[in-house]
Amino acid sequence: MTSAPPTLSLQDLVVGYGGEPVVRGVSLEVSHGEFVAVLGASGSGKTTLLRAIAGYLRPTSGSITVAGDVVAGPRSWVPPEKRHIGVVPQEGALFPQLDVAGNVGFGLPRRERRTSTRVSQLLEMVGLAGLERARPDELSGGQQQRVALARALAPEPDLLLLDEPFSSLDAALRVEVRTEVHALLRELETTTILVTHDQEEALSIADRVAVMSFGRVEQVDAPWRVYEAPSTLSIARFVGDLVELPVRQSKEDTALTSLGWVPVTTEDLPAIGSHALVTLRPEQLALVSDRTLGNGSSAEQTALGTVEAIRYHGHDSLTTVRLEDGTPVAVRAAGGAGVAVGDRVRVVVTGAARAFPDPVV
Amino acid sequence: MVTAIPLLYLVVRTVDAGGESIIAALWRERTLETTVTSLTLVLSVIVGCLVLAVPTAWLLARTNLPGRSLFLVTAALPLAVPSYVMAYAWIAEFPGMSGLWAAIWVMSLATFPYVAIPLTAALRSQDAGQEEAARSLGLGPLATARRVTIPMAWPAAAAGLLLAALYTLSEFGTVAIFRVDAFTRVIYTAYRASFDRTSAAVLSLLLVALALLLVIVEARVRGRASRWRLGSGVKRAVPRQELSRGASALGLTWMIALTVVSLGVPAWSLTMRLMETRRFGFDFTELLGALVGSVTASAIGAGIAIALALPIAILAARYTSRIVRGIEGAAFLGHALPGVVVGLSLVFLTLALLPAAYQTLITLAFAYAVLFLPKAIGASRSSIEAVPPALESTARSLGRGPMRAWFTVTGRLAWPGIAAGALLVLLTAMKELPATLMLRPTGFNTLATELWSRTDVEAFGDAAPYALAMILLASVPAWLMGRWLAGTPGENRRSGTEDDEPVHAQQVTYVGGAR
Questions:
Q1: Beta bridge partner(s), residue A63
Q2: Average pLDDT, chain B
Q3: Could you tell me which of A56, A52, A47 has the C-alpha nearest to residue A10?
Q4: Taking a C-beta distance cutoff of 8 angstroms, is the pair A163, A50 a contact?
Q5: Do B231 and A144 count as a contact with CB atoms less than 8 A apart?
Q6: Starting from the edge strand earliest in sequence, which strands make up the sheet with A8-16, in order?
Q7: Which domains does chain A have, with CATH numbers?
Q8: Is the pLDDT of residue B9 over 60?
Q9: Measured between CB atoms, does B220 come within 8 Å of chain A?
Q10: CB of B137 within 8 A of CB of B244?
């Protein structure tokens, strides 16, 4: 494992469409069998990056190496058909003139298309056994995506690229298809890059998440690191709900905020200057009724406020509390919050906050 | 069903003639020769259309060729030149032209836009997704073209080829000018030599059978025209290929050469003839008389066509029972009915049943209505379809009766499309030649017949003003059709009427004009 070259290696990749580059210097390594999600808002350059890896776009500079071979670099260019990279496009892009079997077998050598059982094996693998003769327009959106996946997997590519493959499906189906595809690719040990703007999707199925913004990869990390230890404030905001509090003063490893004195993670201590923000995830906050606050917890880490709104989701709830100094904070609780709008509550912080330079100042 | 009456009568008439004379007419060497000639002509024009249209469509749709928007217009313009006017222009400039090759040459030039324009639209509107997927599955550029691009663009090209083939098969003027013994000319000659009308009837039926065969073959090779795009996201256009300087020069040369032979030569020839005419003086009252004749007959024809088309169009747009589809299909047979056949059958019909109607204006107008009924149906139907039925039912719920609701809501909203259909029939009928020659009252002249009589006696100079008048009249539907062809990719007949802007719905309206 250690001696084998990474399946994909990008070096200072710059890609554009003539004018300003869209991808501005991306370096990334993906090792065999890994599932990496490229997460970014629309316009962040993630799809352009994927199209460059697939070979649909020629990079302006930098290099792309697949399984040790340079496929795009200063002096080399390998066309998409010679890269052994499978692609599942956004809408599936099935060939409408062919039936399902014709689509799945499209990338196989002519002899295998006719005789081998590979097509039906693949269809069985993606849960569409027996649909060989169906026409693409007779399939549901989820089935079309599965056919597109089987088609991309048929030639056994070194690397599989998924371009927002689940975004056209409705919410319930999206989770189902996503989970199945993930399990299948894991079982096949297929090296995969998933491009998505859906942070929940990226965090839930990837081994590592590369967060892109304005053409650059800002952080590559395990999903929990991206969520709990984002390297910038914009990543922190992008990957989930965020409570942001200005720092009034700091003392050792704590910062004074509207919620009182809040502990800050050691790695972020250098960031606490005069103009800093601390951030907390809503689930790091909890509500206690004003009266029941025991002597055990320090009153310094709490603040009083009024419940302003409650968004109840069944499995959890998000309560907005307006603190006495006017700052709104979001508090997530498993199940219902047990309070009503207008209740006086005390907000308690658990765990440590992150700190970032305040972008407004 | 009115459309079918002339054809049915032709069958009755042929059967009446008795088995022996049918067999005699069929088994003559002449019949075989005619069939071979017509088929050679049609197949060669199909090949010619492909040769002219495919490189053109690729250059216009897939490359960064300079001036491509201008060339898109010039590639559509030959539709404005009636093919026998084009034939006349060529023979006036090169009097030596005659025979099969001359007819193939002119018909290919006259009909290639039927293929080039929908093919351009189809190539342009393809989503990049499929081609990219093919590349990622290991296909090179040529294999991608063969296995993805061409199969996906094929329905558009096949529909265009069918139009070109039917047009060529039923073309009378061009084959007559170049003295090619194709069906239309042989039928007309047999009819003129009035002792042999059974042979004309038998050959007519054979011609119709050939036309139907073309329709069936096209439906087979086109295969199932499915929705060419799955899913609903925004589609990404295929990037245009950057041409090298040499390739650009080659592409420009091709487009300019094509423009010169399809438009330049006819324009030059007509201009020269026109100047000769002015030198020798020209009778304008005669031209005016022909124009009045054309407009009168065509306008009555358009009126009859719309009156026949509306009930069918309303039924076809709102209900889809088997009977309705059958009626609509029968009306569409008109596309496969050559003018010479309709002319001939109406001659027989009037002589046998209603001698008073023989060679009257009303019979001529009726022939126009039969010939161009499909255009009228197509136009009215798509504009009626574009009106949501909910509007009409809302009007009913607000207390209007069915008729009143239709006229105040659906009819009111659909009338521009219906009127455009009538205009299309009117303008197309003005170009009609063989049926006009057979059915017109004695002494009644139209632009087409005047042009014909002058080219017939090789008075080429005198014909130029008539040719010019015809081109001006014909450019109106050609322009409309060009807009339609450019606006709707491929076969997707109904797309765009519902969710696109109204202008687009108007373009779709002319689908009947093309088929």
A1: A11
A2: 80
A3: A52
A4: yes
A5: yes
A6: A21-30, A8-16, A61-66, A69-72
A7: 8-237 (3.40.50.300), 242-357 (2.40.50.140)
A8: yes
A9: no
A10: no
Q: Which of B136, B148, B150, B154 to mutate to test the interface with A (most CBs of A within 10 A)?
A: B136
Q: Is residue B497 part of a domain?
A: yes
Reported as a single tens digit per residue, the pLDDT across B118-166 is: 888 888 888 888 888 899 898 888 898 888 888 888 888 888 888 889 8
| Domain encompassing residue B299 | 4-223+255-514
Name the A residues in 138-157 with CB < 8 Å from any B CB. 141, 144, 148, 151-152, 154-155, 157
Q: Which segment of B220-224, B245-249, B380-384 scores lowest on mean pLDDT?
A: B220-224
Q: Do A168 and B233 touch (CB under 8 A)?
A: yes
Using DSSP's 3-state secondary structure scheme, residue A161 falls into strand
Q: Does residue B237 sit within a domain?
A: no
| Segment B225-269, tens digit of pLDDT | 444 444 445 567 788 888 889 999 999 999 999 999 999 999 898
With H, G, I as helix, E, B as strand and everything else as coil, classify residue A45.
Answer: coil
Q: Which of A87, A136, A137 sits opposite B133 (nearest CB)?
A: A87
Question: For residue B308, what is the DSSP state?
Answer: H
Instruction: Look at phi and psi of residue B496 and say left if phi exceeds 0, alpha if psi is from -120 to 50, else beta.
Output: left
| Integer Cα distance of B74 and B414 in angstroms | 31
Q: What is the mean pLDDT of residues B174-202?
A: 84
- Looking at this predicted complex, what is its ipTM? 0.75
The answer for residues whose C-beta is within 8 angstroms of residue B111's C-beta and 6 or more apart is B45, B49, B83, B163, B164, B167, B168
Are A87 and B132 in contact (CB < 8 Å)?
A: yes
The owner of tokens 């342009």 is B124
Least CA distance to A108: which residue of chain B? B137
Q: Is residue B52 part of a domain?
A: yes
Nearest to A141 among B136, B226, B231 (CB): B231
Sheet of A302-312, strand order: A285-289, A344-349, A302-312, A316-323, A328-334
Helices (H), chain A: 46-54, 100-104, 110-115, 118-125, 141-153, 171-188, 199-205, 223-228, 233-239
Q: Does B127 touch chain A (CB under 8 A)?
A: yes
Domain assignment of residue B238, yes or no:
no
CA-wise closest residue to B107 among B176, B186, B204, B190: B176
Phi first, then psi: give them for residue A23, nearest 5 degrees.
-110, 120
**Given B139, B227, B232, which is nearest A81 (Cβ)?**
B139
Report the domain count for chain B.
1
State the Rg of chain B over Cα: 24
SS3 assignment, position A358: coil
Partners of A195 in the β-ladder: A38, A163
Token pair, residue B79, equals: 């539709």
Can you give the CATH number for the domain in which B461 is found? Answer: 1.10.3720.10
The bridge status of strand A159-163 relative to strand A85-88 is: parallel
Q: What's the sign of the alpha-carbon dihedral A120, A122, A127, A132? A: negative
Rounded Cα–Cα distance for residues B106 and B83 (Å): 7
Please give the Cα distance from B230 to B126 (Å, whole number).
12
Nearest chain B Cα distance for residue A35, angstroms: 19
B 470-489 near A (Cβ less than 8 A): none
What are the phi and psi torsion angles at A264 (to 5°)?
-120, 140
pLDDT over 70 (residue B320): no
B chain contacts of residue A163, beta-carbon cutoff 8 Å:
none
Distance CA B396, CA B19 (A): 58
Tell me the per-residue pLDDT of B82-126, one tens digit each, with 9 for 90 and over.
888 899 889 888 888 889 999 999 999 999 998 998 888 888 888
Number of C-alpha atoms within 13 angstroms, CB side, residue B295? 8
The predicted model scores a pTM of 0.76
What distance in Å separates the CA atoms of residue A235 and residue A237, rounded to the nearest whole number?
5
